[in-house]
Amino acid sequence: FFFTLGFLGHTRSQGDVPNTEEVLNKVSQVVDLNSLNITKGINMNDLNSTVTSTFEEAKKSFTQKCEKNGGKYEDVANASEKFKNCLESFVQISELTEEMEKYKPTGDLDLVFKNYCRKTP
């Protein structure tokens, strides 16, 4: 799950990056942000521990949602790992990133994705 989010986030064009409000709106549809202990005015010196803590709380919340809905978090984690392995079997992330950077200035990212979509099984 988290790899998938990271992969999809990594492949987005910088020109199409959502603003904070859009991201929080989408996340709040999955995770109850009010249940997380996120405080405003985060001290930049404590940012790393805050992010780690928030990530762990989000993971815990996601795990609870899985169990509540009849599934196991481990099943999601295993599926995520299988998905990651599948992607890595035909996509070299460093090569994809390099090609994206090459075509980003001209806006021709569709060419990159067409090339990789042809490789899918």
From TrEMBL:
The organism's place on the tree of life at top rank: Eukaryota
Read off the InterPro entries from this record: DUF1397
For this protein, the parts annotated as crossing the membrane are none
Cleavable signal peptide: none
| Full protein name | 27 kDa hemolymph protein
Native organism: Habropoda laboriosa
| Lineage, highest ranks first | Eukaryota, Metazoa, Ecdysozoa, Arthropoda, Hexapoda
